[in-house]
Amino acid sequence: MNELITHINDAIWGYVLIGVLVACGVWFTWKTKGVQFRMIGEMFRLLTDSATSGTNKLSDKNERHKHISSFQAFAVSVATRVGTGNLAGVATAIAIGGPGAVFWMWIIALLGSATAFIESTLGQLFKQRHKDSFIGGPAYYILKGLHCKWMAYLFAILITITFGLSYNSIQSNTICGAMQEAFGWNPLVVGVVLSVMALFIVFGGIHRIANVSAVLVPLMAIGYFVLAIVIVMMNIHLIPHVMTVIVTSAFGFEQSVGGALGATIMNGVKRGLFSNEAGEGSAPNVAATATVSHPVKQGLIQALGVFTDTLLVCSCTAFVILISGLYQTPELNGIALTQAALNSEIGSVGPVFIAVAIFLFAFSSIIGNYYYGEANIRFMTSNVTVLTVYRIFSAGVLVMFGALASLEIVWNLGDLCMALLTACNLVAIIALGKYAFRLLDDYRQQKRDGIKEPTFHRSQLPEIEKDLDCWE
């Protein structure tokens, strides 16, 4: 069964999805005039403003909502991005595809940040009011923007299975592997503890998830980043060699590990997408919950999330592994490779640090992943029983499955689900991207006119005004 899934994954990724992902990234970068590069200063301004001043109160009608700030929405989305993909996923990509996989992870992040901008801007544009917050995502912009109900429901089902179920088993599998490697703890016991903790948080809804993520994400990202920088600085003389190995391997000039160039590119793109989620359709679900004055604001902030994930956190892991030289050890893969690399650099405290870090990284991903499923369950039905069953399966059953299953089966299932989900979302954002382009032009024009905080009114898009539930 596992071999069959592997063959299907190779066919989908090798012949279809990689080309489409890159083409979309290039197209959106060109149409937005390189928004991910030209407006990076604005991204940081928006993020720091929302983190220090909270959410702007936009109108009396919005006062009944428990506001989710831009920073909180950013934290939840980064919580799902910054997880096992950054520690175990990068290690797996290097072990299978060679050092050159890191280069292709960078490329997919640089191009994918434009894709992330488009999808999250659309998520904000087509968001709807819910009883205690806003709600939205690809299922909503497919239904309201494309008027395609069957495709909207297909996406909702795919993302619920992918994030709420499949990805949570990957996060749990990695946590249990790290704990067993560092402390010798039984995966069954760790799985039970994880399930209980996750169930407690997910039954608290998006506000509890946002509050937990806003604390865990900065803590874990800064701590891990500082440690990696220290290791890099201690080995600064090796960095030119590491960069040379990455680039030569990326183009097939040095394939001592990973074999073919195709394997290098495929693993770099797959692990890059799993980590930063650009184009996958996940981040728009939480981007839609934020209370902002213009849809572009969340588009910019979510584009920054891609940079944070891949160019910072993933690169930290890659440099540590390549500096150690242990990526050439055949029996090391996944989180075990990352732990071994840290052990070689900072001693026995390395595996312990990674075990703690992966717990914070992956646990925050579990609760963030769960929310993506919840948002789409709510899109399909208001039945409370269905939502309760989903919560039990997402935070309970699948977390336990991941704790006990093999590394290969959980990653293969995750890759298959990710491929189907991404394909569905890309079709939608290619068709609806024109609205994001117009919103970006409007935002830039307001900034040129001296308006510090641009605003949007749905009358500015008269052809779809009736489909926009918010933005009065």
Kindly describe this structure.
- With 472 residues, this protein is an all-alpha fold.
- The chain is built from 18 helices and 2 strands.
- It has helices at 2-31, 35-38, 40-53, 70-81, 84-97, 100-125, 138-146, 149-183, 187-202, 205-234, 239-250, 261-276, 283-287, 295-324, 334-346, 349-380, 384-404, 407-448; strands at 128-129, 134-135.
- It has a two-stranded antiparallel sheet with strand order 1-2.
- A hairpin with a 4-residue loop joins strand 1 (128-129) and strand 2 (134-135).
Oligomer: single chain
Structural class: mainly alpha
Biggest pleated-sheet summary:
2 strands, antiparallel
Mean pLDDT across the residues is 80
Percent in helix: over 70%
Any low-confidence stretches, pLDDT <50, length ≥5?
54-65
Summed up, the helix count is 18
Radius of gyration of CA atoms, rounded to a whole number: 21 Å
Number of strands: 2
Distance between the termini: 52 Å
How would you sum up the global shape?
globular
Question: What order do the strands of the largest sheet run in, or round the barrel if closed?
Answer: 1-2
Distinctive features:
mainly alpha, globular
List strands and helices in order, with pairings.
Layout (H helix, E strand, L loop, with lengths): L1 H30 L3 H4 L1 H14 L16 H12 L2 H14 L2 H26 L2 E2 L4 E2 L2 H9 L2 H35 L3 H16 L2 H30 L4 H12 L10 H16 L6 H5 L7 H30 L9 H13 L2 H32 L3 H21 L2 H42 L24
Antiparallel strand pairs: 1-2
